[in-house]
Amino acid sequence: MKRLATLLSAAALAAAGCATAPSDRIAVHQAEFATWPPNVQALVSAGKVGVGFTAEQVAVAIGNPDFKTAAAGPQGVTEVWVYHRRAPRLGIGIGGGSFNGSSAVGGSVSASGIPLGHDMDGRVVFSNGLVSEVSMVSR
Predict the structure, then answer these.
(1) Residue pair 123/81 in contact by the 8 Å Cβ criterion
(2) Cβ distance 7 to 108 under 8 Å?
(3) Calpha distance 127→125 (Å, rounded)
(4) For the chain, which has fewer Cβ within 10 Å, the N-terminal or C-terminal residue?
(5) Which residues on adjacent β-strands are paired with residue 96?
(6) Which residues contact 87 (CB under 8 A, 6 or more apart)?
(7) Phi, psi angles (nearest 5°) of residue 106
């Protein structure tokens, strides 16, 4: 039981360590951040995105997307960045069986931060390189 508690604690710490805050991303991009207008800096610092943002500003504000799609049309190139909520997930399995006078019991524990499709956090749409639409669920 003690081993299970240790494993669960380690998994929770690993999953939490994967998340980064806007301040961490700003520190990495400090030179670029310093050149942005004060209203953009305020939104990025709060982890928010606004219409007219560049891809770099979005990535600093809310991180890189889980996946991107792009299409070219009469209005130019449209790119969609999709984000999924990343939260620690825990799975516990126990099983047993017997055959020909022998029996066995087994179990497993898994933890991950893998997003699932139904857990969508939102999307950001770029038209010709700038944000034209934001649809995000509060993190």
Answers:
(1) yes
(2) no
(3) 7
(4) N
(5) 105
(6) 15, 113, 119
(7) -140, 165
Single-letter code of the amino acid located at 63: G
The token duo for 108 is: 């497993």
* Contact indicator for 64, 19 with CB cutoff of 8 Å: no
Q: Which residues pair with 125 in a beta bridge?
A: 80, 133
pTM score:
0.64
pLDDT band for 8, please (50, 70, 90 cuts). very low
Q: What is the rounded CA–CA span in Å between residue 45 and residue 53?
A: 14
| Three-class HEC string of the chain | CHHHHHHHHHHHHHHHHCCCCHHHHHHHCHHHHHHCCHHHHHHHHCCCCCCCCEHHHHHHHHCCCCEEEEEEECCEEEEEEEEECCCCEEEEEEEEEEECCEEEEEEEEEEECCCCHHHEEEEEEEECCEEEEEEECCC
